[in-house]
Design a protein that fits this description.
six-stranded mixed β-sheet, alpha/beta, four-stranded antiparallel β-sheet
Length: about 325
């Protein structure tokens, strides 16, 4: 019997995304029980037979919905039944803190758990189930927020030991793959809640664009992200070198004179890193915050400070730009 095209698409994506992993490597698959992560786990288990990998399924109970503990237990049973060599689950407490909203806090908690799991099992890679549709939504949300080239570049295919092998796979394929393989995928009620901007983009904006501009908008947005990612990575690397060079001059923060000498595209990236290094949450640090910091360098009129997310403030002090705690946290 011929392999269904949707199942084949997911398996090929995992095969390509993990082609460099040696036999004996441990691969962690983050699995929520939804169609994307279930399809990813199924494909990884299949490809592990040829690759010689050990597959660990990991699920995180954020405790944000009634019955979440029972759901996590069900996902653990599913992962074991699908052939994962080991299954792990963790419960985290998510709440707003340090200027971080619940979605960002949940994401932080989830990655913290995955880091612990990866360390515990000595994983060579952690696989995430983001699809081409997720990438398109990310690009549109970034455009709407005016977040610049970094948002247009979308989600990275890989960072540290994390990988997103399904970024070329449409969500329809992961849903269909689960149906074909008889996997009972969980439908997160949050994915139907129009109170979330991403849900509105998914249910209303993208379908409208497809209707008005023709099919393939999601694929085009994802392709645009790929084209810009290399440019953004290069600029970020140059900016990191500039940040390190300016920081070697000693003292708190960075020298205003050295910052002013940088091209605009590099200076704003250096300032963003300055805020991040001080503890600003990346998900809450927007372009307007960076521009406000930049004004302390390029449009200095005696401003006392600028407020930044994470209960931080940027100040110009004796010829240096510093980011410090505001005392409100």
């Amino acid at each position: 019997m011929a392999l269904h095209p949707s199942v084949a698409a997911v398996r090929v994506a995992v095969r390509r995304g993990c082609a460099d992993l040696p036999a004996g490597a441990t691969v962690v698959v983050a699995c929520s029980g939804g169609p994307d992560s279930l399809a990813l786990l199924s494909a990884t288990v299949h490809e592990a037979r040829a690759g010689g990998w050990r597959v660990v399924g990991a699920t995180v109970d954020h405790g944000l919905q009634e019955g979440s503990a029972e759901h996590a237990a069900r996902v653990v049973e599913q992962m074991a039944a699908m052939g994962a060599d080991e299954t792990l689950t963790a419960t985290v407490t998510v709440g707003e803190h340090a200027g971080v909203g619940p979605e960002a806090a949940a994401r932080r908690a989830r990655y913290a758990v995955l880091e612990q799991v990866a360390d515990h099992v000595q994983a060579a890679a952690v696989l995430l189930g983001h699809t081409r549709d997720d990438q398109a939504e990310t690009v549109l949300l970034g455009l709407a927020r005016g977040s610049g080239g970094r948002s247009l570049a979308g989600m990275r295919r890989s960072f540290d030991r994390y990988r997103r092998p399904l970024l070329d796979v449409p969500r329809d394929d992961t849903v269909t793959a689960c149906q074909v393989e008889g996997l009972d995928a969980w439908q997160d009620p949050h994915n139907e809640d129009p109170g979330y901007a991403r849900v509105r983009v998914r249910r209303r904006v993208l379908p409208t664009l497809e209707d008005q501009l023709g099919p393939g908008v999601a694929a085009t947005l994802a392709r645009t992200a790929d084209q810009l990612r290399a440019d953004m990575d290069l600029l970020d690397d140059v900016a990191d070198a500039a940040y390190d060079a300016l920081g070697r001059e000693g003292g708190d923060g960075l020298p205003v004179e050295g910052l002013a000498a940088q091209p605009d595209a590099l200076r704003t990236r250096v300032l963003r890193r300055l805020a991040l290094e001080a503890g600003a949450p990346a998900a809450e640090l927007f372009h307007e915050h960076v521009l406000a910091l930049d004004a302390l360098v390029t449009a200095w009129r005696g401003q006392k400070w600028v407020d930044l997310p994470g209960h931080l403030r940027g100040r110009r002090v004796e010829g240096r730009l510093v980011v410090e705690r505001s005392g409100r946290g």
